[in-house]
Amino acid sequence: MIELIQQYWPNYLYSDGFNYSGLVITLWLLVVSIVLGFGLAVPLAIARASRNPWISRPVWLYTYVFRGTPLYVQLLLCYTGIYSLQYVHTHALLGEFFRSAMNCTLLAFTLNECAYATEIFAGAIKETAYGEIEAALAYGMSKYKLYTRIILPSALRRALPSYSNEVILMLHATTLAFTATVPDILKVARDANSATYMTFQAYGIAAALYATIVFALIWGFRRMETRMLAYLKPQGH
């Protein structure tokens, strides 16, 4: 155990100028996929909630495909499947992009996260109280102001509990990154186990790091919910 900690603990936690630790890589995968997925999901959720089928149906198809297939399969398609296409590996920019394991992993994670977040936000948009919309229209708001000032702020706040669960699930999903040779926490744990045969210790450290990140996420989202959803609590007289 002491040997494993002395030799591999830096690989779990600490980075130098050339190599990043498993913890940094895992957090990078989580943050980038969440930020990009959120940025794409908001406009797609508006389209998904549209009553126009020419707008909502393509988004429904996208979310259906990415929520209906395993993330592991999506990762393999991005990592090995797309690059095997002749046009892709002969194209300068596309070939350079899909040769990178990190790029392929982030692409798969972002598209998957975006699909789930889109459905969460679209459901919250559809559940917006009609009284709020009617009041905004009566006030003379344009459709753009209606969404930016009334619908989206209200929907995103109400979607926060469900979205926080999705973020935690995305953290768990980052464990698939090691299959694309991305050196995340699980990859470091596998390397440590292969070198020392201390299976329980190697994976135990990884489990402790994941649990710590989850507790930090839960604490952060609970603080956000307390602040942003305070208006939904019953008010005393």
UniProtKB/TrEMBL annotation:
Pfam families: BPD_transp_1
Species of origin: Paraburkholderia silviterrae
Protein name as it appears in the record: Histidine/lysine/arginine/ornithine transport system permease protein HisM
Location relative to the cell: Cell inner membrane; Cell membrane
Keywords, in A-Z order: Cell inner membrane, Cell membrane, Membrane, Transmembrane, Transmembrane helix, Transport
GO biological process, one term: amino acid transport
Topology versus the membrane: Multi-pass membrane protein
Stretches assigned to the ABC transmembrane type-1 domain: 23-218
Transmembrane segments: 20-47, 198-221
Lineage, top ranks: Bacteria, Pseudomonadati, Pseudomonadota, Betaproteobacteria, Burkholderiales
Gene: hisM
Domain of life assignment: Bacteria
